[in-house]
């Protein structure tokens, strides 16, 4: 759940922007058939199996249009829900129900899809000792929602943004002039409390990262055999993350290699949306 301060400072502006994108002057369709406030009720129905995520955001969209809207939910974030299951109902001014429907569902469907995909991958990893991480490969202006969905699905968040942690990637290394130079410069600039992570693509880069004192070494797009060699070389002198084309179909090959983390951009950028609908809208006389 998002706390009230986070909602007001960080989430409400994003939701208002999304509503304005969908309705920059008026909802001409709704206003043509609904000329005044009339109380109505609509059901929220799941149309496929998956992990539910984003009910608080779904509800907040409607509250920004009409703070008198009522919600009765029979499921909660993190629940496994089934095709045909009624998740609850929403009651309020029919104009707000109609105008907020698509924006609210877009968030709920997207977040539930990510939570579902993450859950499926986390289940494949449940018998191992490494942790599943997300990345910054998120939809612009939706990161706060998508990273929450990862946690709901059983994954873990990597750094939230560029201010949140040091991760020296290939282009940083190129800009600095090499692995050792990049780590040296990061140590000079960053507070001592920050860990330094570096992305490497060869065993030579692994050795250089160790000699320079990296805290976390990310093995990027390496074969299983190369990862085994790198793990032996590192020998617990640094934490190890594996990254690069990690999906549900490929994650199993990394499970027994002795790494600490497996990061996957796919859990946010490749997750399909989950089909959820608002149905059976009717007036309450």
CATH topology of the largest domain: TIM Barrel
Mean pLDDT: 95
For the largest beta-sheet, the strand count, sense and barrel status come to: 6 strands, parallel
Distance between the termini: 34 Å
Explain this structure to me?
By secondary structure, this protein is an alpha/beta fold. It folds into two domains: about 5-120 and about 270-285, Alpha-Beta Complex (Aldehyde Oxidoreductase, domain 3), CATH 3.90.1170; about 125-270, TIM Barrel (Alpha-Beta Barrel), CATH 3.20.20.70. Helices cover about 40% and strands about 20% of the residues. It has ten helices and twelve strands. The chain has a six-stranded parallel β-sheet. Helix 9 links the parallel strand 9 and strand 10. The chain is elongated.
Main attributes of the structure:
single chain, 285 residues, alpha/beta, Aldehyde Oxidoreductase, domain 3, TIM Barrel, 2 domains, 6-stranded parallel β-sheet, 4-stranded antiparallel β-sheet, 42% helix, elongated
